[in-house]
Design goal:
Length: 196
């Protein structure tokens, strides 16, 4: 079973394409996927294992991720060879790995997990877009937090924790947002009048 330790070494290239197990395979994989012009040369329909030359097929295998001494094991889809421990993971496959890593990081760092973020947002009766605008992060942030694609900052995490305990704080945040939205145009108008 392949093990990937994060925080020490990373098996991902700058475009977030990765191979899990072998440095040799990682170099080969990066040579195809780090450079867009080479993407067309590797057919993902019938990949061949670079170590054994055996054909690879779509499968799901257990992978363990480790972060700061804590581990999580999950089923990772990808292209695998029966003749070796090699695997190729597409961007879609890596999204599963990234989400599990974010889940593990949230647990280790004491941050809210995606299901908790969703529960609190629904308790506050906010859409994802409203939560991103009022609490922070932007209109699409909560979609990413709740899917596990992105970890919330400590500030967002703290705001959600406080709002979970005292939902009336949401009124203050909405009022502040309303004041800042109305204050901006008048400030801009006074600046343009003074400059004339």
């Amino acid at each position: 079973m392949p093990i990937i330790a994060f925080g020490k070494t990373s098996t991902t290239c700058r475009r977030k394409w990765a191979c899990c197990t072998s440095n040799l395979w990682l170099k080969l994989f990066q040579s195809f996927y780090c450079f867009p012009s080479r993407r067309r040369t590797m057919a993902m329909d019938n990949p061949v294992c670079p170590e054994s030359g055996a054909p690879m097929h779509r499968d799901v295998r257990p992978i363990t991720l480790t972060y700061k001494g804590q581990s999580i094991t999950f089923e990772m889809p990808g292209w695998y060879s029966d003749a070796s421990e090699e695997g190729i993971h597409t961007g879609k496959d890596l999204r599963i790995s990234d989400r599990n890593l974010n889940f593990l990081k949230a647990r280790v760092e004491g941050l809210l997990e995606p299901s908790e973020i969703r529960r609190i947002r629904k308790k506050l009766q906010l859409t994802q877009e409203e939560a991103g605008t009022i609490i922070g992060g932007g209109p699409r942030a909560f979609q990413k937090y709740e899917s596990g694609d992105l970890l919330p900052s400590r500030a967002i995490n703290s705001a959600l924790t406080l709002l979970n305990r005292d939902p009336s704080g949401l009124i203050e945040l909405k009022n502040r947002q309303g004041q800042s939205a109305t204050a901006r145009p008048s400030r801009i108008a006074s600046i343009s009048v003074n400059q004339m």
